[in-house]
Amino acid sequence: MTKDMQWPMLFSEEQIAARVAEMAKEIAAAPVRPQVAMPILVGAFVFAADLVRALSREGLPLEVEMLWLRSYGDKRTATGISMIAGPSDDIAGRDVLVIDGVLDAGKTVKKAVQLILAAGAASVQVAVALDKQRDDRVAKADFVGFNIGNDFVIGYGMDDAGKHRNLPYIGKVIT
Description:
By secondary structure, this protein is of the alpha/beta class. It has helices at 13-29, 45-57, 107-118; strands spanning 9-11, 36-41, 63-64, 67-70, 82-85, 95-103, 123-131, 143-147, 153-154, 170-172. The protein has a single domain (9-67, 92-172), classed as Rossmann fold, CATH 3.40.50. Helix 1 packs across helix 2 (45-57).
């Protein structure tokens, strides 16, 4: 841990960039090529920006629509999912790639997929930066950046009560 880092680093900026590029290749080579990227705000915004640019470099330029679901609020434990902004009618009949920061219990991803399918999407695939690999999760990702344990993480768009989203690396919160 360096002087400017308060939390142990799980993944460096360089490791993240390399993995995002690999994920873009995987998504571009998948049998169903998405037409629309739908990041889940707020935690996925940094990962989504990197991923959609990497997908464009792979010849897969996507339209982007935001989905804003909130499950943590200012806590470290999910309290229930509220929708702030849902999918538009523009996704009807289209293949959608949901992008999220962390797959924990899977409730947010499950809700996102339900909302997108209800809006008429032809298909939905899910890409996450981090998967906690919980046995009790209710949703799975099609594309995963890194598998982690049950650590609470910050940085790369992910926060602790609204703080530390700006960190260029992914760190582990020590309590």
